[in-house]
Write a structure and sequence with these properties.
The structure is a single chain. The protein has eight helices and 19 strands. The protein has helices at about 75-95, 175-200, 210-215, 225-230, 235-245, 250-260, 310-320, 355-370; strands at about 1-5, 10-20, 25-30, 35-40, 50, 55, 65, 100-110, 115-125, 130-135, 140-145, 150-155, 155-160, 165-170, 225, 265-270, 280-290, 300-305, 340. Strand 12 (about 150-155) and strand 13 (about 155-160) form a beta hairpin. The longest helix has 26 residues, at about 175-200.
């Protein structure tokens, strides 16, 4: 093929005939009598295809353009795209356990307005906390299980809808269809069972209707806003605030709550990755805005802490203890920190109305929750 390389000022620094090689981590350009150019796949910001040319903007601000690939164009684009996706998936999921390896399918992705955003052959991969869709052409999509609000399957077709209004349609899975549906259903049901179990432990008197509704909005550790939780059961919000008090976060919570917008405050709780050995964590988000004359605001504060309670192994060790040394197993106090997220630009903030800020904070809370559960 042929190539051109441009620097951050769009000035051409190299060009000519070359060969290209793609490995699990690198795209290597081998010019004819030139300097070999290795590019790590995670350096590639995007993969743009048009007119049988591949344009690869880099995070370094360089731009690599590949052309004259002939009949190799589609294969080269597919392999490069797949391997780049795998590198990014590994980086973002940090080696999260795969529950169901790749299932070939045809998929269609639509946004909240029903507009078609992407479609074509793809692979679906089920992880512990989310579904990953890897298109044959294009960047992968991740759908957190906590963001899914409806799933239906019929006539060898699976439909998935999210709280944001996005929709995913999966067809033509062949012989993998039954095993995929079974595994997906098991994961989805297990997350709901965990949410119900945690809520029952948090507030034993909760009635069955409130339990079902609360589990739907707080599935997989998702933080829910005060207004949402109080609409289900006002006493549940009180219990969540009591749990914050029991973690030692009472003082910062009370301080931030005084500064913040109470009805927009969100609280969630999630069991640790090691289940009974690590217990549960509670976390909260408090938006602080709407009073620029006071000299503070334009932020969302976040804190998290482990809910007190002795791990199962520690309880067993204490029960078996026959002397003072064995009988005193203490849990160490974990460090705490407050994280602040800016809502909008500093210059933009003073000119926005409370209504506009309300909309911004709702969207940002969704983003923070998605990131924290990824």
């Amino acid at each position: 093929m042929s190539y051109t390389l441009q620097d951050e000022n769009s000035k051409q620094t190299a060009s000519g005939e070359c060969k290209g090689a793609v490995s699990k981590q690198y795209l290597t350009i081998i010019p004819k009598f030139g300097t070999v150019l290795p590019f790590h796949l995670r350096e590639i910001e995007a993969l743009e295809a048009a007119g049988f040319k591949l344009t690869l903007p880099m995070f370094s601000k360089e731009k690599l353009v590949l052309f004259n690939l002939g009949h190799c164009f589609e294969d080269f684009q597919r392999v490069l795209g797949n391997l780049r996706n795998e590198v990014i998936i590994k980086d973002l999921l940090m080696n999260e356990t795969i529950i169901k390896l790749d299932v070939n399918t045809d998929f269609t992705y639509t946004d909240e307005k029903g507009n078609e955003k992407q479609k074509g052959p793809a692979r679906i991969r089920l992880y512990e906390t989310g579904m990953v869709i890897i298109p044959q052409i294009g960047e992968f999509l991740r759908v957190s299980y906590s963001d899914i609000n409806n799933v239906s399957e019929r006539d060898y077709t699976v439909k998935v809808g999210t709280e944001r209004g996005d929709g995913f349609l999966f067809q033509r899975m062949g012989s993998e269809y039954d095993s995929f549906v079974k595994q997906f259903s098991m994961i989805y049901d297990e997350l709901q069972k965990k949410a119900i179990s945690s809520l029952k432990a948090l507030y034993p008197p909760i009635d069955s209707v409130s339990l079902r509704k609360a589990a739907a909005i707080m599935r997989e550790g998702k933080a829910a806003k005060r207004a949402q939780i109080e609409a289900v059961n006002p006493k549940l919000w009180m219990e969540l605030e009591k749990r914050i008090t029991s973690t030692g976060l009472n003082e910062p919570y009370a301080f931030l709550k005084e500064l913040g917008v109470p009805e927009k405050t969100a609280i969630g709780f999630k069991r640790g990755l090691m289940g009974d050995l690590t217990g549960e964590y509670i976390w909260f988000l408090i938006p602080i805005y709407g009073a620029p004359d006071k000299g503070y605001g334009n932020s969302i504060a976040m804190e998290a802490a482990e809910i007190p309670g002795k791990p199962k192994e520690a309880e067993e060790e204490k029960a078996e203890g026959t002397d003072e040394t064995k009988g005193t197993v203490e849990k160490e106090t974990t460090g705490k920190a407050t994280y602040l997220f800016r809502m909008v630009g500093r210059r933009e903030y003073p000119g926005l109305t409370n209504g506009q800020l309300d909309s911004n904070v709702d969207e940002l809370i969704k983003v923070i929750i998605d990131v924290c559960l990824t």
